[in-house]
Structure formats: structure tokens, C-alpha cells
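Hi R.,

As promised on Friday, here is the backbone we talked about, encoded as C-alpha cells. Could you run it through your design pipeline when you get a chance and send me back a sequence?
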């Protein structure tokens, strides 16, 4: 997807998130992907991993995803073939990890550690790298990059669940106001909806005053 919005001499930045209908990134007691991942979605994830991406992660997501990738590659893994392929394939993808607590060298293959300011580092990466920079989880990192106006694409896969009681990690808390222009949509496995937007960070409501969606 990077070719759609990244010039040949610079990298585009995409925030890429999975989300429940009520805006959570995860839910206590629920399985991964809320138990709703299907072969079409997992196949798409595997194909996306083969594109010219560099993934951007915070420390917590790095610890979680590197362990999941390691477990998926282990003999006797209980994951399905599609689930295992989508996780183990991450080892081959370039990854940049932003953390002041982790220490180099990182054990997950193709992982580069950055200990300085993430916004400054990503600003420089957009100038000096090609392809697509894409976040992987890392909600606070996503929020910082979006607030700084660095994000070229905002992509969600919406899972058809409401986890108001068990939901954890509210995605939009702390976000600025943002207008979104839809550029792509797609349905996976008859139930998961991909939505991709061009985001524009706003200083407030467009007219400068309170806004009601349903006057």
C-alpha cells in the first residue's frame, strides 16, 4: 500500500490498528482477535507482511509480539497454520522498537532499537527511508505520531463486538480532534471491516465551537 501515498524517495507512515466496535484494542477474558479471525483476514495479514513495510513498535508490544512469534514457530504450537504463518512471518520484517528500557541487541530478528524521542526519529525516518512505515499495536506511540501530524494513513480493522464491560486499552483516549477522508474499505470473512483514511489533525471543531452530531 505504500506506493499509493509514499513518494519514491520517502516513506509514508500508517497507523494500523485492530479495534472493537466500541473502541477497545483488547478485552479481558477474550481470545486474540476476539476469536473472530478467519482465513481471509489471516491470509491478508500474511500478504501484508510480505510488502515493503517497516514496523514501528513500543516496548510492551515488542515483548508481546516477539513472544507470540517465538511461540508460533515452536514445535507443537496450538495455533492454526494461518495464525502461525501470520505471526512467524513478522520475524523477517524490519522493525524499529522505541524504548528507554530495552537494551540492544534485541533478540527478535530484524529489530532495531531507538532510545531517543520517537516523534523526532520517525520524522527523520520519513525523510530518509522508502516504503511504508507502519505501527504495530503500540497505542501511545500511535497517539504521539498522529498528534504530531506525521500520519499519512489511518487504517482500522473493526471487529463486530462490543466489550463495554471487559474492554481494555481504549484507543482514542487522549487523541486530538481528527477529520478522516475514507480512501479504502473492505470486508474480511463476511464480518471484519477494514477502513482506511487520510487523517487531518484539527485544532478543534471546524467552526471553533461545540459540535453536535445529532442536533
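Update: got your reply. Pasting your designed sequence below so it's all in one thread:
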Amino acid at each position: 500500500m505504500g506506493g499509493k501515498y509514499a513518494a519514491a524517495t520517502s516513506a509514508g507512515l500508517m497507523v494500523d490498528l485492530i479495534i472493537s466496535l466500541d473502541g477497545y484494542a483488547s478485552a479481558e477474558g477474550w481470545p486474540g482477535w476476539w476469536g473472530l479471525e478467519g482465513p481471509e483476514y489471516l491470509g491478508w495479514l500474511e500478504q501484508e507482511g510480505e510488502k515493503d513495510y517497516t514496523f514501528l513498535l513500543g516496548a510492551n508490544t515488542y515483548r508481546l509480539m516477539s513472544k507470540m512469534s517465538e511461540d508460533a514457530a515452536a514445535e507443537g504450537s496450538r495455533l492454526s497454520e494461518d495464525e502461525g504463518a501470520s505471526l512467524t512471518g513478522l520475524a523477517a520484517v524490519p522493525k524499529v522498537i522505541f524504548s528507554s528500557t530495552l537494551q540492544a541487541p534485541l533478540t527478535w530478528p530484524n529489530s532495531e532499537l531507538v532510545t531517543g524521542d520517537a516523534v523526532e526519529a520517525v520524522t527523520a525516518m520519513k525523510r530518509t527511508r522508502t516504503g511504508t512505515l507502519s505501527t504495530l499495536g503500540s497505542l501511545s506511540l500511535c497517539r504521539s505520531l498522529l498528534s504530531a501530524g506525521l500520519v499519512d494513513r489511518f487504517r482500522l480493522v473493526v471487529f463486530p463486538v462490543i466489550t463495554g464491560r471487559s474492554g481494555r486499552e481504549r484507543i482514542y483516549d487522549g487523541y486530538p480532534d481528527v477529520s478522516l477522508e475514507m480512501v479504502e474499505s473492505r470486508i474480511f470473512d463476511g464480518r471484519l471491516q477494514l477502513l482506511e483514511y487520510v487523517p487531518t489533525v484539527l485544532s478543534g471543531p471546524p467552526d471553533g465551537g461545540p459540535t453536535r452530531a445529532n442536533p
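One thing I noticed while checking it: The chain has a mean pLDDT of 85.

Thanks again,
M.
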